[in-house]
Every structure is written in structure tokens, then in C-alpha cells.
Amino acid sequence: MPSTAEKRATFRKLHESGCFVIPNPWDVGSAKALQGMGFKALASTSAGLAWSIGKADNHITLNDVCDHLTALCAAVDLPINADFENGFADEPDGVAANVSRAAKTGVAGLSIEDSTGDKAKPLYDRRLAIDRIRAARKAIDDDRSDVLLVGRCEAFLWGMPDLKLTIDRLQAYADAGADCLYAPGLKSKDDIAAVVKAVHPKPFNLLIGWPGLSVAEAADLGVRRISVGGALARAAWGGFFRAAKEIAEKGTFDGLGTGHPASELNAIFSG
Questions:
Q1: Which residues, other chains included, contact 151 with Cβ-Cβ below 8 Å and sequence gap of 6+?
Q2: Distance between CA 242 and CA 77 in Å, rounded?
Q3: Is the N or C terminus of the chain more exposed, i.e. has fewer CB atoms within 10 Å?
Q4: Are 151 and 133 in contact (CB under 8 A)?
Q5: Residues 30, 51 contacting (CB under 8 angstroms)
Q6: pTM given for the model
Q7: Phi, psi values for residue 159, rounded to 5°
Q8: Residues with Cβ within 8 Å of residue 181, at least 6 apart in sequence
Q9: Is 50 exposed, middle or buried (0-12, 13-18, 19+ CB in 10 A)?
Q10: Strand-pair category, 109-113 with 204-207
């Protein structure tokens, strides 16, 4: 097992060139399975974690997340990027304290969102959002943890598809110390290309949670890394519900025939 420092160094190296995929496991088993498929890094998913413990997205606690991240980091040899939501605090001091705690789980990267969770006011005020990123940066630097900081603008996810606002915020987060920028919800090639150009030379993370762009197409747009958020967890739940509903509604079990072979699952987890 590589050391935490080695994982972090490997993760930073991945961001220097090319395009790589960091799929999002929701538990230790899915993390180990993805590691076995040859991915170079993984990212947690707050939604996937929430569903796995019977909670709705955005209803997990700081303790839930830190326990989960500790387990993921201990289970695999790969660097883990943490979906750390809004830092589980509104004010910069709280964000800083929680980022320091998250760094102790062994993560190689960590993202901070600018969404408030309030539909009436979905994004933090610009100045506060920047100060939150700056506080996260200082916490990482003070701890000398070398955790890669990702600044996220959530405008497109919260019904605010304003490209100018998104670019302005991402550039400000880069200036405040974010190592990588992320704007989930972008779908058009023109929008993606515009954001990649605007944040250059900082790397940009693209969310692909639906059929559409391929890795090659994203790479051609200049995307450095691709994550899938809760999409793999949703795919797994889709198979579960299709099979379970068939049993409940029809009394038949045909859907169970589509499951992954037990022998292969045992082989994956026998190491």
C-alpha cells in the first residue's frame, strides 16, 4: 500500500497532462472493484454515500463523510478525491477546520462547493465564496498536507446556467488557491471549451453523469479529468429496483439473472 504522501504526489502528477477518469465509488466494495479495473484515481460521491446509508443527498454529516473517507483511503492503493460538499460550514473558519479534519483521513484531493443548499439563494455571495476557498487553501498549507484543492461553482446544477458567472467564480477560486476547477452541469462542447480556456493553466474537472461525450471528446476539449458523481451508484440502484420490483409486482425472478456472477465478485474481493 502506497503511503498517503505517495498517493498525493501521484494525484498531483496526474493533473499535469492528459485526461484521466476518476469514477466515484460509494463504498469500500465498489472502490476495490474500480481499482481492479485499472483506474488511476477515484473520487467519493456524497450522493452515493448518502443513499448507501439510507439518507437523501445533502443530508449526510461531517462524521459520516470523514468515516467514509477514512475507510476508502485505507481500502485501496489509489488516490481518493473527496466530495466534501460545502465544507459542512458556512463561514470560512468552519470550512478551514473541517478541511483540516478531512485531510487527516488520507484523501489526496478535496472539493469545496459554493452552493448553500437554500433554493431561495442557491450560491454563497461571491466574496464569501472566495473567502471559503481561501480558508480551505490556508488550512491545507498550514497542515502541509499537500491535499489538492478543487474549487466548484454549482450555478448550472442549481438552475443558473450563466456561463459568465461560472467563469468569473472559477477564475476567482483559482486566484484564491484552488488547484483544480470544477463546474458540474456543463454539457455543451462550447461551454466546456470556454471554461477550460478561461481557467487555463489550471486543470478542469468535467462531470459526465449521462450518455454523451466520450473520454476522447472531452480530452480534445482540454478537459484534464472526468468524474461521474453519483451516476454509478444510480446505475447500481437501477438494477436493484428493476429486479426487486419484478419480484414484488409480478412474483417472478427473471431480473436476478442479470446479476454479476458471485464467483467473479468473490475473486475481486479475495485479495
A1: 111, 112, 114, 133, 170, 173, 174, 176, 178, 180, 181, 182
A2: 33
A3: C
A4: yes
A5: no
A6: 0.96
A7: 70, 25
A8: 150, 151, 152, 153, 170, 173, 174, 195, 199, 202, 203, 204, 205
A9: buried
A10: unpaired
pLDDT tens digits, one per residue of 60-92: 999 999 999 999 999 999 999 999 999 999 999
pLDDT of 132-153, one tens digit each? 999 999 999 999 999 999 999 9
Residue 115, domain CATH? 3.20.20.60
Dihedral-angle region of residue 260 (phi above 0 means left; psi in -120 to 50 means alpha; beta otherwise): beta
What is the grid cell recorded at 135?
Answer: 480558508
pLDDT, tens only, 213-242: 999 999 999 999 999 999 999 999 999 999
**CA 153 from centroid of its chain's CA atoms:** 13
Is 241 a domain residue? Answer: no
252 vs 42: CA distance, rounded Å: 37
Hey, what amino acid is at 237?
A: W
Is residue 264 in a domain? Answer: no
How many residues are there in the chain? 271
Task: Decide if 252 is inside a domain.
Answer: no
**Consecutive H or E run containing 196:** helix 189-199
The answer as to whether 13 is a domain residue is yes
Q: Which domain holds residue 20?
A: 4-230
Q: What is the DSSP letter of 121?
A: S
- Residue with the three cell numbers 460538499: 85
